[in-house]
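Bumping my old thread because nobody answered last time. Still need a sequence for this structure:
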C-alpha cells in the first residue's frame, strides 16, 4: 500500500484512540467525584466541565476528520469525485452511521452537562439533569466499544 494512503487511513483511528482515552478518563469522573471534598471537589468539577467542552469539540473534529480521510482515500484509490466519496460503502457505512449516532449522543451529553451546571449555579435542583448526563455517558461508552470494533474490522478490510 502507498505510504500516503496508509497515513490517510490511520489518521482517524489514531486520533480517535487519543480522544477515546480522554473520554474514558472523563467517564470515570462519577467514581472519583465521590472521594473529593470542598475546594478540591470544586476545582475537579471545573476541570471536568472544561474537559467536557474540549471533548465535545474534539469529537466533532474526529468524526468530520474520519469522513474527510475516507473521502480523500477513496478519491485517491477509486478515482471517484467528492460528493460520491463522502459516503462510505459496505462496512464503512455502518461505521459512519455509528459516528453520526455518536455525535448525536455527544451533543445530548454536552447539553445535559451544561444544563446541570447552569441549574447548579442557579441554586436549583439539578439531580435529574445530572442523572441523564451520566446515563448518556454510559451509553456513549458502550457505543464507543462497538464503533471502535466496527472501525477496526473496516480498517482490516481496507488494508487487505
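Sorry it took so long. Here it is:
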Amino acid at each position: 500500500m502507498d505510504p500516503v494512503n496508509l497515513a490517510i487511513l490511520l489518521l482517524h483511528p489514531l486520533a480517535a484512540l487519543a480522544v477515546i482515552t480522554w473520554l474514558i478518563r472523563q467517564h470515570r469522573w462519577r467514581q472519583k467525584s465521590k472521594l473529593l471534598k470542598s475546594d478540591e471537589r470544586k476545582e475537579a468539577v471545573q476541570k471536568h466541565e472544561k474537559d467536557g467542552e474540549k471533548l465535545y469539540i474534539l469529537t466533532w473534529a474526529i468524526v468530520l476528520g474520519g469522513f474527510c480521510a475516507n473521502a480523500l482515500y477513496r478519491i485517491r484509490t477509486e478515482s471517484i469525485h467528492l460528493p460520491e466519496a463522502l459516503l462510505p460503502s459496505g462496512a464503512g457505512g455502518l461505521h459512519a452511521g455509528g459516528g453520526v449516532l455518536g455525535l448525536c449522543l455527544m451533543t445530548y451529553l454536552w447539553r445535559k452537562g451544561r444544563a446541570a451546571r447552569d441549574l447548579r449555579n442557579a441554586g436549583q435542583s439539578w439531580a435529574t439533569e445530572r442523572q441523564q448526563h451520566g446515563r448518556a455517558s454510559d451509553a456513549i461508552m458502550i457505543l464507543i466499544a462497538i464503533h471502535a470494533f466496527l472501525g477496526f474490522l473496516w480498517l482490516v478490510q481496507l488494508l487487505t
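The chain has one domain: 3-159. Let me know if any region looks off to you.
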